[in-house]
Write a structure and sequence with these properties.
Elements: H1 2-15, H2 17-41, H3 46-57, H4 60-71, H5 74-92, H6 94-123, E1 134-140, E2 146-147, H7 151-160, E3 164-178, E4 184-191, H8 195-199, E5 205-206, E6 222-225, H9 227-234, E7 244-247, E8 250-257, E9 271-274, H10 278-281, E10 300-305, H11 311-328, H12 330-333, E11 337-342, H13 344-348, H14 352-383, H15 385-393, H16 398-434, H17 449-474, H18 479-483, H19 492-529, E12 539-545, H20 554-568, E13 573-579, E14 589-590, E15 593-595, H21 603-606, E16 610-614, H22 618-622, E17 626-629, E18 643-647, H23 648-654, E19 664-667, E20 677-683, E21 700-704, E22 713-720, H24 724-738, E23 744-749, H25 750-757, H26 759-793, H27 795-803, H28 808-837, H29 853-879, H30 883-887
Helix pairs in contact: 2-3, 5-16, 6-14, 6-16, 6-17, 7-11, 14-17, 14-19, 14-26, 16-17, 17-19, 19-26, 19-28, 19-29, 26-29, 28-29
Length: 890
């Protein structure tokens, strides 16, 4: 309590300073008067008595300082003095203050905006129960690959493990909600009863699934719906439980509504059905027996670690279980292991590296901004050298000056941070709209308290960094020399070295950013000009769903090709075809296969081969060359011999130097019940998943759509004679005019799909290019400032050179040569830095190496040109020096 009383009295001493000063003066004067009266009574004259009393009492000011130290907080008072002095100094130099604040605002604002995105996406925990213990469990194949899980393997994992509190399985797909209103496509998850408790989700109306509803196939036709679907389709009906919902022509009873904002682990679902009811909505796939077939890898598995169990510990036990299953089921599990990963990887894996690259880029911009401001501070410190020398001569220690420097820089960076946060607030929505990634629905990018703390820490770190440079530059200063009347305001040898170091750093950082942007833009150029293997002009695609109960048997297989024949006669259409895939959105699936007369194909190798089903005229419509054999025709029906086509890369890999036509392949192992299929043709390689795709690494088996085992949804591909954008609406209307019950979705031109596919490289290239341009501008301004100050400091030398016969060209070479030498050092340093930094961008590049010599030389030449240009004006000023004026300089 005594310490609290002392602290309170000291704080009170600061708040009541004026009244306490009056009381102190009165008390000291009273003491002096008493001593004076005592001396007078001893016989001294009044004046002599007063002087004697002063000598006996001691110095009044020293006594006052002692009392002030006892009643107040000296550190706080000194800080307030430093702040007041710093504010006066900044107000006295509005030009310096304005430029420094604006420069820091750009750097701190860019960092704050990017950090807001990084925090929201990479640092925010997932919106599930105890997300730190939530893991994803996949099957693994050779070479570190991963795949979805066979349901029987999930059942065995759940029964045999001791490291998880609980496990859950689910799958996702598209479904059609039909009824009296217009049909609607929604995303659905088929989930085990443990799925919702594992995620910590309860229904806001009704209940979730029970264990009984996940015990027997096709017994409990119940469904859960999402909050958005409940509002949109059922008008937020509070009595929704017990009503029916028709999914893919099968009726389910609604048992609950899930919370607002919950879209399942897939982050897109609006309907959930029990795992046991999958065959009800997909009757065509019932023949594959997903629930008991270990060769069907479709499901996703989540698990929650028990307290105290690490990821590595869980991985070790699951590997033991996987080895046990491989021994028990060598045919299906012999080449498959297990992989346990954090669930955050599912959400952030694709954009962690790009966001960190952008964060590194804006950090470079801030460092360049700091270098600029540091050079301004060095220049200002040189002007203030006489002031600082006087303060040192009067007894101030260097620590006291450092504290003053730090206070001034804190004020400067605080103003820059405030302006930067304002810029970030204004530009955050624009930044998010420019970024090419689709963030999870639960992500909220905003300037919250954590971001503001980051901005404050960044401002404090910037102030400390800025304080280092004037301290280094003044370390070699001589107080006596600085106090001489004729002493010039110079930064000293060490100050000049620090200034040069800052210029070299600016050039190096700017070059790294320019190279990063250049690599991305070069990748974009390759993406847009590389041949995709087909003709993308005048191509459109429309996805549609074929109802199960309306088109049955052979009619389902004929529906797509016959629809394509009809659309081909539509005005403005040149040709049309149907395909199972959705180009540049979904490129098909991997399916194990065997080749007649060849050794078995490993699971890892089979996972690199895509299976697609296409209708007649597909290759002609797409503009894909037919290299050997023939195309599919309407004669390749369910009643005809089974046939396939393969891509050029498939033929080259499995039949090198041979004619593939007439060879036979089948699905599954060589002794599987699937029939053999004959190869009738070879097509050219194309890109169907992404513009970054390597068709050689992902061969294709093309099945005949007319012979497909499963017809659910497909895409219509049409080549138009007129503008493809103008044909999208009429083609959609024509399909729905043929059958209004068929939902049409994912409507786009191929140009739009390819533009969206390249948007990641384009957007990151644009952002990095903007940061590089800003860095180049800041570097040019910084170099100009340094060279201008250098010329000003050497004005007298310039005058002497001109007096002794130097011509303007000599001075040009002197000034520009100094800048060019610094630029070369910066370019060399930047080359080393970029060699290391651009490796982090490898995942964003396409057919571009992390270090491109031609690109480096070109950008280095541009940067050197900018440096020379920034040096030209100071050089021109040097040639305009009047020798007589220069000799009288200072």
């Amino acid at each position: 309590m005594s310490r609290l009383r002392v602290a309170f009295s000291r704080l009170l001493g600061i708040l009541q300073k004026q009244s306490l000063e009056k009381d102190l003066d009165a008390e000291l004067n009273a003491h002096l008067d008493l001593l004076t009266q005592e001396n007078i009574r001893r016989g001294m004259a009044p004046e002599a008595a007063r002087q004697a009393a002063r000598r006996e009492f001691g110095g009044l000011e020293q006594t006052k300082e002692d009392y002030r130290d006892q009643r107040g907080l000296p550190i706080l008072e000194t800080l307030l003095q430093d702040v007041r002095y710093g504010l006066r100094m900044l107000a006295r130099n509005p030009g310096f203050t304005g430029v420094a604040v604006l420069t820091l605002a750009l750097g701190i604002g860019a960092n704050t905006a990017i950090f807001s995105v990084v925090k929201a996406v990479l640092l925010r925990p997932l919106p599930f129960k105890d997300p730190a213990r939530l893991v994803r469990v996949n099957e693994s194949v050779e070479k570190g690959g991963r795949s979805s899980v066979a349901y029987p393997n999930y059942v065995d994992w759940r029964a045999q493990n001791t490291v998880f509190e609980e496990m859950a399985a689910f799958g996702d797909c598209e479904m059609i909600v039909s009824g009296t209103d217009k049909s609607e496509r929604v995303y659905c998850e088929q989930a085990s009863d443990t799925y919702f408790p594992l995620l910590g989700v309860s229904a806001v109306i009704g209940r979730t699934f029970t264990p009984e509803e996940n015990a027997t196939p096709m017994k409990h036709a119940v469904a859960l719906i999402g909050y958005g679907l409940w509002e949109r389709r059922y008008a937020s009906d509070p009595a929704i439980v017990g009503k029916m919902i028709r999914l893919n022509d099968f009726d389910f009873t609604i048992i609950g509504v899930l919370p607002k904002g919950f879209l399942g682990y897939s982050d897109s679902a609006e309907v959930w059905i029990p795992m046991m009811m999958r065959d009800a909505v997909w009757p065509q796939v019932a023949q594959f027996d997903y629930l008991h077939n270990r060769d069907i890898h479709f499901h996703k598995v989540l698990a929650r670690l028990k307290p105290g169990i690490s990821l590595a510990g869980a991985q070790a036990e699951m590997e033991t279980i996987a080895a046990r299953l491989a021994n028990a089921y060598p045919k299906d599990n012999g080449q498959r292991g297990v992989l346990v990963t954090a669930t955050t990887e599912d959400y952030v894996r694709s954009f962690r590296a790009p966001l960190l690259v952008l964060l590194g880029a804006v950090a470079f911009v801030l460092l360049i901004a700091c270098a600029n401001v540091a050079n301004l501070i060095l220049t200002r410190s040189a002007v203030r050298e006489r002031e600082l020398a006087i303060r040192l001569a009067l007894g101030a220690g260097r620590g006291r000056l450092i504290r003053q420097f730090l206070t001034e820089n804190l004020l400067l960076t605080a103003a820059g941070a405030a302006a930067g946060v304002t810029l970030a607030f204004w530009g955050l929505d624009l930044l998010v709209s420019v970024l090419p990634v689709s963030f999870p629905s639960f992500t909220r990018v905003r300037l919250d308290g954590g971001v503001l703390v980051f901005a404050c820490v960044l401002a404090a770190a910037t102030a400390m960094l800025l304080t280092v440079f004037p301290v280094l530059s003044s370390a070699d200063s001589n107080v006596n020399e600085s106090l001489k009347e004729a002493a010039k305001s110079t930064a000293g040898p060490r100050g000049r070295r620090v200034g040069r170091l800052l210029v070299v750093s600016e050039v190096a950082l700017a070059l790294v950013l320019m190279l990063g942007a250049g690599l991305l833009l070069k990748s974009l150029s390759h993406l847009l000009t590389d041949n995709p293997g087909f003709r993308p002009d005048h191509l459109v695609t429309l996805r549609f769903y074929v109802p199960d109960r309306k088109y049955e048997g052979d009619g389902r297989n004929r529906f797509g090709p016959e629809l394509a024949e009809r659309i081909a006669q539509f005005p403005g259409v040149e040709s049309a075809a149907a395909t199972f895939i959705d180009p540049f959105l979904w490129g098909g699936f991997q399916r194990g296969f065997s080749i007649e007369g060849r050794a078995p194909i490993s699971n890892a190798e089979a996972d690199t081969v895509y299976y697609q089903e296409v209708g007649p005229n597909y290759f002609h419509t797409m503009g894909i060359p037919l290299l050997q054999g023939r195309d599919f025709s309407m004669r390749d029906s369910l009643k005809a011999p089974l046939v396939v086509m393969v891509s050029e890369s498939f033929a080259r890999r499995y039949w090198p130097g041979q004619d593939p036509v007439g060879k036979r392949i089948k699905y599954g192992a060589a002794d599987s019940p699937y029939p053999w299929m004959q190869v009738i043709g070879v097509s050219g390689n194309i890109k169907y998943n992404s513009l970054r795709q390597d068709p050689e690494a992902e061969p294709v088996i093309y099945g005949a759509l007319l012979q497909s085992e499963v017809i659910i949804n497909m895409s219509l591909i049409a080549r138009t004679r007129t503008s493809p954008e103008a044909m999208l609406g009429p083609l959609r209307e024509e399909i729905q005019r043929i059958d209004p019950a068929i939902p049409v979705y994912n409507v786009a031109t191929f140009s739009q799909r390819m533009h969206e596919d390249s948007s990641e490289t384009r957007s990151y290239g644009l952002l990095l290019g903007l940061f590089a341009a800003l860095a180049l501008l800041l570097a040019a301004v910084g170099i100009y400032g340094v060279m201008s100050y250098w010329v000003t400091q050497r004005t007298r030398e310039m005058g002497i050179r001109l007096t002794f016969g130097a011509n303007p060209a000599d001075l040009h070479r002197l000034v520009i040569g100094e800048g060019a030498w610094l630029a070369l050092l910066g370019i060399g340093t930047g080359a080393l830095g970029s060699f290391l930094v651009t490796r982090a961008m490898t995942g964003l590049l396409y057919e571009v190496k992390p270090f491109e010599p031609a690109l480096f030389l070109g950008l280095a030449a541009v940067l050197a040109g900018v440096v020379v240009l920034a040096c030209y004006l100071p050089a021109w000023r040097a040639t305009r020096v009047d020798p007589m004026v220069a000799l009288r300089y200072e």
